Amino acid sequence: MQSVVRQERFIRMDIFITLLALGVMSYFYYGFRAIMISGLCMTVSFVCEYFSLIAMNKKFTADSIGCITDGFIIALMMPASIDYKIPIIACVFMNIAGKNIFGGRKNMIFSPAAVGYLFALTSWAKQVLEYPNPFAKTAVSDGTEKLVNSASHIFNTTGRLTITDYDIIMGNFAGPMGAVSILLLVISAVILLFRRDISAGAFIGFIAGMLFMGLISPVGENIFESVKYLFATNMTVFAAVFIISDVRIAPQKFHFSFFYGIFIAFASYILLLTTGKENPAVIVSVLFTPAALGLKRLESRINKLIEEEKAEAEIAEAVISETRTLSEEIAEEYEKTQGKISDIADEAIEEIVNYGNLSENSAEEEETTADCESISDNSDDADNQGDDLNKQA
After folding, report:
1. Interval 131-176: pLDDT, tens
2. Region for 196 from its dihedrals, namely left if φ exceeds 0, alpha if ψ lies in -120 to 50, beta otherwise
3. Which residues have a Cβ under 8 Å from the Cβ of 108 and sit 6 or more positions away?
4. Taking the model in full, what pTM does it have?
5. Is 116 left (phi over 0), alpha (psi -120 to 50) or beta?
6. Any idea where the domains of the chain sit in the sequence?
């Protein structure tokens, strides 16, 4: 149990470090306001988690600090110009309604960050989906003077973008302040996959599903450009790493998590084609909760059946082992008994042979004695006859 808890702490720590790299990049593009939004989100998440656990008569432990990473994720999904109250309210909703109302971190049914973002999106869509250009003036108090539509909106509605590959890699285009740097996101994905901090099946399934849909039904006329912009916009890679591949949500087995990821990819792409919604993967990850729960329940039943079969196999193996041991003991006892019987028989035969030899020797002695007696009698007769002859003479 302690190893599992320790592993969960290391996972949240690794995720926080990768998010910190994205936060540094957001500071590079948007200044200190990006740091303020991130700090507020983490602080509010911590406070909400603390008082929520107290209200539920639970202890606040080191494992509960994982709420900070969820607040950090929400901050990086927001524009740098967002009104401070919006991410704060989103974090409150995330911790109370998105997580603790269902039992907290041990009973999570969807990504808390996705729930908080979806709440903010439905409540303040205009402010959530309008962004400043990188390096634009973003004052700590007033935000920015000019806001534009995101690259995701342009791609979803027109199928075309005019962004260089370098800007795509570095995240130098309008979008969420921490979810557009493709280079850092790819590096984060590799690190977290190598460290087994995210679900490999869910990540691979989602990326493979989006790639497949982008190839067979591209948004734009050029397939290659369409696939490139598909992964560069709509927080596709960010959602794949920090929301869809969350090990707290995705099924544990690779094949179950793979189908979980690929189903979200298909539904997200269909939503993108039919409605042009921005960031469809985040929306679908919440709407897909019943299917995720169904997969996890199926996985749990299969694991239970496997455990029962293993238990039965262990019992059968134990019975076979006991039977084998008992058979070996019986065979050993049988061999010992046969050896004793053989020894007894040999002794009896030897005694019989000895007895026969004694009988023969006794008979021979009797015959010898009889012969001796006969000779003695004849000698006596001869002596008597000699005496008679002497008398006659």
Report:
1. 998 887 667 766 566 888 999 999 998 888 888 889 999 889 999 9
2. left
3. 99, 102, 248, 249
4. 0.76
5. alpha
6. 1-146, 198-287
